[in-house]
Structures are given as structure tokens and as C-alpha cells.
Design a protein that fits this description.
The chain is an alpha+beta fold. The protein is 18% helix and 27% strand. InterPro entries: Metallo-depent_PP-like (IPR029052), TAT_signal (IPR006311).
């Protein structure tokens, strides 16, 4: 490895990070219970001020029955007598029941909880003429502060019919006129741009009128079917995870800045990194203090591939900050090498080029924000395929998981936001993770163990790679509200907060199609790559931007609130 590549890969690591690189561990802090998120329950919810966005209300429809909304909610319908009785108007099925009807339903991957709210056109008999129908779902009265600007958030999955169909979200306060917050229709000027909304987190800003103290929200869906026209099974609206919060003010100066990309994997990815990504990142006015390359840096884990990557990295000008590597499946040869390969040798090779001695890494970004990297540790090969096509891979050791728990404990006790990196995603989170090729790759024991650990640490923001799905998609980011199973007594309060998760894009083989739930994706393109993230950490938020580094287009920005105690300066590290 050349001297310039070694300097770029490791850099001048702060003392606390250097200790981690050497030993893989830092002193463990006192265990402390996680901040108490707002528990789900019947009726209006208790205000939660533990994070920088005050939460005034939360609902995930878990308290509903199959045809009955949660307590305090109301539903009405018109001209829906020809629907299946269990689907007449807004209904509240389990997620599996909804997606099993087929079509694009299974793309609603972000919901994770067992129940969702749905209006589904496919559940009616064939109309014999003009057959308009409508259905509305209304929340209970929610107490809100008079005169303040707030946000209504909810997960939305909507398919637009070519004939007249529209959906509207309105807010009705205890005084004043109703406000229309969102409209979906065939019009290009509406929120859905005339098309579908695929597993998107809608954030709608509104201002409470002076003197108003409560608000009700209504989700209304109406459809007019032309004579002789049969809708088939593709038109519906599903929502979940309704939340009312305060709005964050304009951001101040960031505490730290981080760049992230992944999935380079050889010649094409190296060329894009060298000629597009690195020059673009270096051109930004505020240089990042570090870069995380979150796995699949090379294709087969060979020495020549690492050397070629380093040469391309240097030729592209490198990165102005420290560069941190995470290992993915391709560092172990993916499925291109024969069985019996020495995974210990491949891990040793990765660690050599990464400039450290342990597969796990803790690093303090700008000396302030902890980054925790958990590398894949095992070979990922075709021999691991199960009869149903899944590849069950134990990604990390018990030692790594124990280390992660210790570090999470340490930073949670200090109210500090943590950025956590793992190459493989968790199932039913970001784009494509509902597909068998992704949701079945991590062995069940590892997945459950990791989710239980994340459940205790709401200060964590997670970044995953591997899928290659485009960052232009609405579900590039998600919050995992399924950390604990429904029968766990802590599930209501823990799942209500959830853990935000982000897809880091790719430098090769971008996937954009809806795919098939039992197989792989349906399209492979380069339109939206090379792609990756820029992250700004502020005292009151973590702001994540999704970029196309080649076209210099920013697709999305998401802001994650941090523990209120951290924003108030009550961190102790």
C-alpha cells in the first residue's frame, strides 16, 4: 500500500479513536435506561419532550381491530356496499394480509408494525356503471399549542388510478376553517406529481391558528369509475405511523460533517469514484472531517483489487478528511470464489488495507460525534443458499455484538447521538429490503439480536448499504418501528420511537425496479449513480442529504431529532 493511500485511509485519528483502533474497545459507561419514548395507548398520547422534536401524538393502528379503527378514531364511507365486508371503507389489516393480495402492495416496506390503515379498490365487486365511492378516516382530537408551527408525519403508500381518483389530508381545528395539507390526484402539480407514492414518509407542515387548542386530521379517498372500466388490483392507499411533532428551526452551524458512500466493486465503480465522486466531494464549500466507505470496496477481496482501488482513490484526489472502511460481503469474495476459502485470511487482508486490527471500529467525528462501524466477518457464498433461495449469513460474531452493546451503553448514558454503520440492511426497512434476496440474507438470530440492541438506544442513526437501490426513491430512508415483536411488553413504547435507517447508494449496478417479492429486482441501470450521502450533525439534529455525485443533484434531505439533553449541552463525553 502506497504512503499516500495509507495517509488517506487512516489519517490523523483523534486519541480516543486511536485507542479504539488499537484495542477495539473503550471504557464502558454506566448502563442507563433509554429515554422513555411516548407509549402508544388509547386516545391522545402524552407529550414526549425527550428529543428535540416535541411529540404531541403518535398512532400506529396497533390498537385497532380488523374493521374497527383505534379508540378515538372514526371512519365513514359512501357507496361501498359492493366491497368485501372486511375491506369496506378504511380497514386495519395486518401487514402480511395486505401485501399477500399482490401487485405493488409489498413495496410498503417501511411500516414494520403488524397493523396498517388501508383503503383498497381491489376488494370490491366489478362495477356495472358509474360507481363513485369514498372513504374517510379521522383522528381523535389532538391537543396542540396555539399559534405554533407543527408537523404531521405519516408513512404513505398510494397508487394513482388513471380515471378520476384523489386523496386529501385535511386539518380541522377547534376554531377556524379546515386546512388542506396534501392532495394526491392525476395532476402533475399535486403532491404525488400525478403518479404513485411508494413507501414515502410524508411530512406536512401546518400552523395552529391563534386561540386553537385541538386539531383533528382526516385522510379522505374518493374514486369515480367509468362505465365498463375494471380497476383490477392496483389502486389503493395505505398509511401508518401517524405522528404530530414540533418543527425544528433553521439549522445553525454544524458540529461535524461526514461523507458516506459504498459498493464500489471494481473497474466501473473505481472510475466513477475517481472521476466523479471524489472531485465533487472535494469541491463542496464545507469539507467533511471524514469519509465512511460502507462495504463492498472491492469485488473479490484480492490484493490487486485493493491496490487498484487505492490507486483510483489517490488519482481522484482522495478525501479532505480521514477515511474509514467497513467490510461487506464482497471483501470475502461474494459468490465468485470457490468454497473452502480462508475467511480469516480475507479478514486479515481487509484489516491491513483498512489500517486497523479489529473488524469493529469506533471513531470520533471532529472529536465529538461517535461513529461505530460493524464489519461483516464471514464468507458470503452460494453454499449458504437455503432450499427456498435465501442466503442465511451470520454476519458478525458475538464478540462484535458485545462490543457494540458496550459502546451503545456508553454513549446513551451521555445523551450523545451515534452514527452506526453496517453493510447489510435489516429486512423491511429501506428500499428493496422486502425482497427475498435482501430480507433473508441475515440469519434470524443475528437480526433479532441486533434489533433488540437497537431498541434500547433511540439515540442511534443507522446507515446500511448492499442493496444498490437508487437514492432518488422515496423509501431511501425509513424508521424501523418493528424493533421488538408485538408480544414483547416493551414493544409499544420502543417501536413508537424506532430507529432511523438510511440507504447509502452505490457506485455500480443501480437497481430501481419494484421487482418481485420472491426474487430479485427487475431493472439495472446507471442513471442515478454514483450516489451517496452527506451528513451534517448539529446540536439539535442529524441532517442527511442523498446525492447523485455524478450529476450533482441532491435528491432528498431528512432531519432526525437528537436527545434534548444533548441539544441543551448535557452531554458528558
Amino acid at each position: 500500500m502506497t504512503e499516500i493511500s495509507r495517509r488517506r485511509l487512516v489519517g490523523s485519528v483523534p486519541a480516543v479513536a486511536a485507542a479504539t483502533v488499537a484495542g477495539g474497545l473503550l471504557p464502558v459507561g454506566t448502563r442507563q435506561a433509554a429515554a422513555d419514548p411516548d407509549p402508544q395507548g388509547h386516545g391522545p398520547k402524552t407529550v414526549d419532550r425527550s428529543f428535540t422534536k416535541v411529540r404531541y401524538y403518535w398512532e400506529s393502528f396497533e390498537d385497532g381491530e380488523r374493521t374497527t379503527p383505534p379508540p378515538g378514531w372514526s371512519a365513514n364511507r359512501e357507496n361501498m356496499d359492493d366491497f368485501d365486508p372486511d375491506w369496506r371503507g378504511w380497514s386495519f389489516p395486518g401487514y402480511a394480509e395486505f401485501i399477500n393480495f399482490g401487485g405493488a402492495r409489498y413495496g410498503f416496506a417501511r411500516c414494520c408494525n403488524s397493523r396498517i390503515a388501508v383503503i383498497d379498490s381491489a376488494r370490491r365487486g366489478q362495477p356495472d356503471g358509474n360507481a363513485p365511492f369514498s372513504a374517510a378516516l379521522t383522528s381523535p382530537e389532538i391537543s396542540v399549542p396555539s399559534g405554533q408551527t407543527l408537523e404531521l408525519g405519516f408513512d404513505s403508500h398510494y397508487v394513482q388510478a388513471p380515471d378520476p381518483q384523489h386523496a386529501v389530508v385535511t386539518a380541522q381545528f377547534d376554531r377556524g376553517d379546515a386546512q388542506t395539507l396534501l392532495t394526491y390526484s392525476t395532476k402533475a402539480t399535486d403532491a404525488n406529481a400525478g403518479g404513485n407514492v411508494v413507501s414515502k414518509r410524508e411530512i406536512l407542515t401546518f400552523t395552529v391558528p391563534a386561540g386553537a387548542r385541538t386539531v383533528r386530521f382526516t385522510w379522505a379517498y374518493q374514486q369515480q369509475v367509468k362505465k365498463g372500466y375494471w380497476l383490477g388490483d392496483e389502486y389503493f392507499w395505505a398509511i401508518d405511523n401517524v405522528e404530530v411533532t414540533s418543527a425544528l428551526p433553521a439549522p445553525g452551524k454544524p458540529v461535524a460533517i461526514l461523507d458516506i458512500f459504498s459498493d464500489v466493486q471494481g473497474t466501473d465503480g473505481n472510475n466513477r469514484m475517481q472521476n466523479l465522486t471524489l472531485p465533487f466531494l472535494s469541491s463542496l464549500p464545507d469539507p467533511a472531517q471524514a469519509l465512511v466507505i460502507n462495504g463492498d470496496i472491492v469485488r473479490n477481496g484480492t490484493i490487486s483489487e485493493y491496490e487498484t482501488f487505492n490507486a483510483a482513490f489517490a488519482a481522484g484526489g482522495g478525501h479532505p478528511g480521514d477515511t474509514l472502511w467497513n467490510a461487506g460481503n464482497h471483501e470475502y469474495g461474494a459468490m465468485d470464489l470457490p468454497n473452502g476459502i480462508d475467511e480469516a485470511a480475507l479478514l486479515k487482508r481487509f484489516l491491513h488495507y483498512a489500517g486497523r486490527t479489529t473488524p469493529q471500529l469506533e471513531y470520533l467525528l471532529n472529536g465529538k460525534i461517535p461513529l461505530l462501524l460493524l464489519s461483516d466477518e464471514h464468507v458470503y457464498q452460494g453454499v449458504n443458499h437455503q432450499p427456498d433461495g435465501r442466503r442465511l449469513v451470520r454476519l458478525f460474531s458475538a464478540q462484535q455484538l458485545s462490543w457494540l452493546e458496550q459502546r451503545f451503553d456508553y454513549w446513551r448514558a451521555r445523551n450523545t447521538p451515534v452514527l452506526f454503520f453496517m453493510h447489510q440492511p435489516l429486512s423491511f426497512t429501506v428500499s428493496g429490503t422486502y425482497l427475498r434476496n435482501y430480507c433473508g440474507e441475515m440469519d434470524r438470530e443475528s437480526g433479532y439480536a441486533l434489533r433488540r440492541l437497537l431498541a434500547a438506544n433511540p439515540n442511534v442513526v443507522m446507515f446500511t448499504s448492499h442493496t444498490h437501490w437508487g437514492l432518488h426513491l422515496d423509501d431511501w430512508a425509513a424508521v424501523d418501528h418493528g424493533l421488538l415483536p408485538a408480544d414483547d411488553p416493551r414493544a409499544r413504547e420502543v417501536n413508537a420511537r424506532g430507529i432511523p435507517m438510511f440507504n447509502t447508494g452505490a457506485h455500480c449496478n443501480e437497481y430501481t425496479g419494484a421487482g418481485n417479492i420472491n426474487g430479485d429486482v427487475e431493472s439495472d441501470s446507471v442513471e442515478h449513480i454514483p450516489s451517496g450521502l452527506r451528513v451534517y450533525i448539529h446540536r439539535d439534529r442529524v441532517r442527511v442529504e442523498a446525492w447523485n455525485f455524478g450529476t450533482k443533484v441532491k435528491y432528498h434531505t431528512v432531519e432526525i431529532p437528537v436527545p434534548a439533553a444533548y441539544a441543551a449541552g448535557h452531554d458528558t463525553h
